[in-house]
Amino acid sequence: MIPTLRFSFVLSIILLTANARALPDLFTDPDDGMFDISQFLLDYPLGVLPVPVIVTEPAIGEGAGVAALFFHDNDQQQSSTPSQEEVPPSVSALVGIYTNKDSWIVGGGHIGHYKNDDLRYVGALGAASLNLDFYGVGKDSDAGLSFNIKAKLISQEVLFRLGSSNWFLGADYTFATLVNKFDLEIPGIPPLELESNNASASAVVLYDSLDNTYSPNRGLKIKWEYAFFNEAVGGDFDYQQLNARNQVHVPLTKHFILGLRLDGQFADGEVPFYAAPYIDMKGIPAMRYQDLNVLNGEARLTWLATQRWHFNVFSGGGWAAENFDEIFDSSPKNAYGIGMRYLAAKAIGLSTGFDIAKGPEDTVFYLGFGRNF
Predict the structure, then answer these.
(1) Any bridge partners for residue 152, and if so which?
(2) What pLDDT, in 10s, does the model give residues 199-212?
(3) What is the distance in angstroms between the CA of the first residue and the CA of the last residue of the chain?
(4) Under 8 Å CB-to-CB from 188, ≥6 apart: which residues?
(5) May I ask the CATH architecture of the domain 8-369?
(6) 41 phi and psi angles, rounded to 5 deg
(7) Which residue, among 268, 270, 289, has the nearest Cα to 335 in the 3D structure?
């Protein structure tokens, strides 16, 4: 499976504000009179949100694109669960981006909440051509080997709620066709191309008590996924991987929220180089530090200055090692930064803004979408 690259999305505030004069009630919150797009997204028949996609991920370069988001209002918005007052709207999206490293991504996806949020679905279909650098698995090299990876991917996930609890059980299937091309730049030797399929079938368990999907102020979310990669499900590689994602949000006071996350990826078997776990942290390029066992930890303190304006500071670190029992023997790669958000759609908790993160090699500017990890 292609490693998940971190992309940051920003709402199209400028485009929507240009239309706000013509339709002032559609973009104004009746309670505080502030700019708000909730009514446009949930009530307007053509509530498709154009979103400029600003890519600042160092691994694939700087670039831009556009996404179209459509929020589907659920028939039953009131949830029976103790943790969530309302069922989040389902979201469909189309996206296309291009970067200054001649990398591109096109695709679409859907996040669905059905049957009063007793059934959750996530699906994606896309294609990409990415120019990346490979620094080695288990190595801390300053010089990477450039390569291109072309991929076509489909992913499907279905989760079912257990009774009226916050627990879900389900499954995921992902299939990708890939072509990796290395240009060794040696006279007389053509570029090396490696074609492969990578596929996984996964068992998924989820606990979700977050009070909001996009900008949580309290709650716990635990998602563990055990994936089997082998020929039986359509792949060319035989290995297993546990993805454990954990986050908690605690209101310290009325205006300060503490968020913590601890994520781990643990692989065993014939893991292809492009799928090896990597340290995933703002300020650190994707795939920069890879190994079979990776642990990421991060803390973030958010100041709710007003209902609309939120400011945060964050710090975290990641470890990578071949064996799990050696993971803390490796040197951590640390990053820290600051950021801000504006609550642009109060009804669904959708916020937009930016983060500035300092990592081991560089300082990176990200446009941010939501306050979830």
Answers:
(1) 127, 177
(2) 999 999 999 999 99
(3) 21
(4) none
(5) Beta Barrel (2.40)
(6) -75, -40
(7) 289
